[in-house]
Design brief:
heterodimer, A: alpha/beta, 17% strand, B: 327 residues, alpha+beta, 5-stranded mixed sheet, 9% strand, elongated
Chain lengths: 591, 327
């Protein structure tokens, strides 16, 4: 409001801010927005006023209050919680990352909130009920790798959020509260659902309600079924929703024994019936599921293969012979996830057809260290030769050679993500006996766009010198059972100028290596070191030198006292604007 | 006769899978590494760690004590034996060939590198071959070096560096597997395991620790499965089923409040005459649940059904007769 008494009227400023706000409304990249906010106070205010999507990479980097104070008109919030090694049981249960303070902080401030996206957070049923009750315009809930809630919480959301468009539960741990949540959607009329994904919910589903729901969801494009949906039921759903673009196929096998109440199922459990179902779903571009696949049904998907851009067979225990008839149609495939049961031969088939492949993930069926190696350097090599546009790879294997990795570094210069896991720890190149230094060295050297790297196998400090020297764009680095001495860590912390996330386990890096990162830690999102050789004193030193760094020290198995060594079991540190967290459990020491 | 020190005695074929089950002790022996040869140092008078599980824990414990008493250790001098990850051995056996092990402990290089190639070139060679070619003390060192690569995370501390502060006292409990390695999400591991379990359940054959049976209810849109072995009384089973099926009797969902209400209502219904719990036994007959002792029940129950009371008339007497006949 203009102050007419004031000689220096704020008119020009207001005009400028209005113009700025209108312009900034078009700015979506958060990096750009962060830059804008640093120009001057006026720009800071304008940017804060116009930011509608807030991304919080570490829920403990700041308090909810700080977010709601700065950004007042937020429609979408993304929050990430636990460090990634929590996925591998390296973080004690009850460590934290609770969603509760966030939902209560936002409940008052963001009445118009529409979207919540959480990753690795602990979410309770009460939190979900609070979401359902606090945000009248709520539209999208995406929970990835979260836990702490159950079907009761889901039921609360679906029953009360009438405008719900997106409900995506991805790799969560969802407890079975024996609630028939799928029946809790508002009973009458069409829904606004565009995406419903519940692959990870490990409890039976009321199929009749589900079918009814799908039938009255004309906007539904993405449907991800859990393994309790049989192939016959899938067929029925597909005929109800031929407009689907993304389909998680559920179990993809017939029921174990026909049940009395499933009398309405197709009696002709023949592949041809399912083929026609897929043929009528012309828009499908993304297929996943296949949770308990009966391999003889896989050819049913052939009608959609030519249009598929993403195929996730990572729960399907199929071999190369079963894969080939299908994959040879997938010319447009960009994303392929599979189990190593397809073997090098299966990968060869992928390499021959999928010339546009951008992302490959090969998971191990047998994740033990002396397991049978079904894929090897041959498969990697074949992929590198056939799929030149590859950008992202995650590859589990029992044996590897430097030569194959070097070949990939040269054949696939667009690689952005390279994650190789040789399952046997300390495994050298199985042909030459050398460490895997040269292979990973070639990756960082030749793949100039590389931002994410995970290493494995026998690695000396030399590997880390390569990473430090060439990995200038690397933002995320994962290290396990590698290196010889502190120098290795020093190379990385001094050389990788863009490093944001560093996670290390079981490697001989100690205090002096850690200290070499002191100038960098404020620029990083977090550092994780477990079962390394850092001492409590060393960590204390870091905490003293960097007061804005929260330095958490704990033991994975929560043992107190009886210290067997001076080495810290787990160190997890991150910058924070609001000091150490108040909800740290007893076993976490914040230095 | 010098008992074997590294390896499994007698008629076993070098499989240590049985060893790994005794996970509370130090598991020293690799699986399938072919290290089945005799004790060449004659240091230990321990009995072999018996491969047969039948011999029982006490034998293993006894030999374990003796093993500790021997001077030969798989680890650096002055440290305790490392706990071994038996699953790691295959790869480690291959890696035992490799030169890169030795630069870590350069002082040992001179002794060992010459004989390194002859040490283990594959899984099949045993220590007897090695024995012929190297002196025992060098061998000790080589074993130390080689084994130092095949350690769990605690031993890693001892391997790398001179300040061996770790493992100077009691060794930590041996782990059969390294936690969180390989980095595959448990979600993904569990799912594949669930597939295997589902196949077992289909046949109705009980697994060693779980006994899943299907539970259906008239009018319910889907089945559930329960593990009968997770209950010890009829009361427990009944409460669990009430909880599972309450949402169907009243067709309600959502808040906790309404759920608990429906649970108690279902309990009333169950205890009243409206619904009864029945089961199909091995002979294919449907019986009322609760007539026979619990153990007998879980032994003969193939599936459960929550029936309307009116459908269940006439079941009770047959159950009594049957149990009499069995007795």
């Amino acid at each position: 409001m203009p102050e007419s008494n004031d000689h220096f009227t704020p008119y020009p400023d207001h005009v400028l801010e209005n113009v700025l706000e209108n312009v900034l409304a078009f700015l979506h990249s958060r990096r750009d927005r962060n830059a804008v906010s640093l120009v001057c106070r006026s720009w800071y205010r304008a940017e804060a006023y116009t930011r509608s999507d807030v991304f919080i990479g570490n829920c403990y980097a700041l308090s909810p209050r700080r977010v709601t104070d700065r950004f007042t008109r937020v429609r979408s919030v993304t929050i990430k919680g636990k460090p990634r090694f929590a996925d591998f049981s390296l973080l004690p249960v009850n460590w934290g990352a609770h969603f509760t303070p966030w939902v209560s902080g936002m409940a008052n401030a963001y009445r118009t909130l529409e979207k919540i996206h959480l990753k690795r957070m602990s979410v309770t049923d009460d939190d979900l009920a609070a979401v359902a009750n606090s945000f009248p315009r709520f539209k999208e809930l995406v929970l990835v790798c979260c836990d702490g809630f159950g079907t009761a919480g889901i039921a609360a959301v679906v029953s009360r959020c009438r405008g719900l468009r997106v409900l995506e539960l991805i790799e969560d741990e969802v407890s079975d509260d024996y609630v028939d949540w799928i029946s809790c959607f508002p009973a009458d009329g069409p829904t606004n659902l565009e995406s419903l994904m519940f692959d990870c919910v490990e409890s039976p589903i009321n199929f009749e309600s589900l079918e009814n729901l799908v039938a009255r969801s004309p906007l539904l494009k993405k449907l991800g079924l859990n393994r309790f949906v049989t192939i016959g039921q899938l067929h029925r759903l597909m005929t109800r929703a031929p407009q689907l673009t993304h389909l998680g196929t559920g179990s993809f096998s017939p029921p174990e024994q026909p049940e009395q109440h499933e009398h309405h199922e197709n009696d002709n459990n023949r592949v041809s019936d399912y083929v026609s179902a897929f043929a009528s779903c012309k828009s499908v571009v993304c297929l996943s599921g296949f949770r308990e696949i009966a391999p003889e049904y896989l050819p049913a998907i052939i009608p959609v293969c030519a249009n598929l851009s993403s195929l996730n067979l990572s729960f399907a225990n199929i071999n190369a012979e079963q894969l080939k008839p299908v994959i040879r149609h997938c010319h447009k495939l960009r994303v392929f996830w599979a189990l190593d049961s397809i073997g090098d031969e299966g990968l060869q088939a992928v390499a021959e057809t999928c010339k546009d492949l951008r992302e490959l993930r090969v998971f191990p069926i047998d994740a033990t260290e002396n397991g049978e190696g079904l894929v090897s350097e041959m498969g990697l090599l074949a992929i590198s030769i056939g799929c030149r546009k590859l950008q992202s790879i995650l590859y589990f294997c029992q044996q590897m050679t430097n030569a194959a990795v070097v070949a990939m570094s040269k054949n696939c210069p667009d690689l952005v993500v390279f994650r190789l896991c040789i399952i046997g720890r300390f495994s050298p190149d199985h042909v030459t006996g050398e460490p895997m230094d040269e292979g990973f060295g070639a990756i960082v050297k030749n793949c100039k766009k590389l931002t994410r790297l995970a290493v494995s196998g026998l690695l000396t400090d030399r590997a880390f010198s390569y990473i430090g020297q060439y990995g200038k764009l690397v933002r995320t680095l994962s290290v396990a059972f590698a290196g010889d001495s502190d120098i290795g860590l020093k190379y990385v912390l001094e050389g990788c100028t863009n490093l944001q996330k560093l996670e290390i386990r079981d490697s001989p890096f100690g205090d002096s290596g850690l200290w070499s990162g002191l100038p960098r830690f404020y620029n990083m999102r977090f550092v994780w070191m477990s079962s390394c050789r850092v001492t409590r004193e060393g960590c204390l030193d870091v905490a003293r030198q960097l007061p804005r760094l929260v330095v958490e020290v704990f033991r994975r198995d929560e043992e107190e006292g009886g210290e067997k060594s001076d080495f810290v079991n787990t160190l997890y540190m991150y910058r924070s604007l609001d000091g150490p967290r108040a909800d740290a459990p007893r076993f976490v020491n914040i230095l | 006769m010098p008992p074997p020190l590294l390896g499994i005695d007698g008629d076993d074929h070098g499989h240590v899978s049985l060893m790994t089950s005794a996970s509370t002790m130090e598991s020293i022996f690799p699986k399938n590494a072919g290290l089945t040869e005799r004790n060449y140092l004659g240091l230990s008078d321990s009995s072999s760690v018996d491969s047969s599980a039948v011999s029982g824990i006490s034998d293993v414990k006894r030999s374990n004590l003796n093993l500790k008493a021997t001077e030969l250790r798989l680890g650096l001098p002055g440290s305790q034996s490392p706990e071994r990850d038996p699953d790691a051995d295959l790869v480690s056996a291959e890696s035992l060939d490799e030169k890169p092990l030795f630069p870590l402990l350069p002082s040992k290089d001179g002794i060992c590198s010459g004989s390194q190639k002859t040490f283990v070139s594959g899984n099949k060679r045993g220590f007897s071959d090695v024995n012929n070619k190297v002196s025992s003390c060098a061998q000790t060192t080589m074993i130390n070096d080689a084994a130092s690569k095949v350690v769990s995370q605690d031993q890693t501390h001892a391997t790398f560096g001179n300040n061996n502060k770790v493992n100077t006292s009691n060794p930590p409990a041996a782990k059969a597997q390294v936690v969180g390695w390989p980095p595959v999400r448990s979600f993904r591991k569990n799912i594949l395991a669930t597939n295997a379990k589902t196949n077992d359940e289909v046949d109705g054959k009980p697994g060693p620790t779980a006994l899943f049976v299907k539970v259906s209810m008239d009018g319910a849109p889907y089945l559930r499965k329960v593990d009968l072995r997770s209950y010890t009384t009829y009361q427990q089973l009944s409460s669990a089923l009430e909880k599972m099926f309450s949402c169907f009797t009243l067709g309600q969902c959502g808040s906790q409040g309404s759920q608990s209400l429906s649970e108690s209502k279902l309990r009333d219904l169950l205890h009243g005459s409206e619904y009864v719990l029945t089961y199909e036994d091995k002979d294919g007959d449907w019986m009322l649940v609760g007539d026979v002792p619990w153990d007998l029940f879980i032994g003969s129950c193939k599936r459960l059904k929550i029936m309307k009371g009116s459908d269940a008339i006439g079941l009770a007497p047959r159950a009594m007769e049957k149990s009499k006949n069995r007795n």
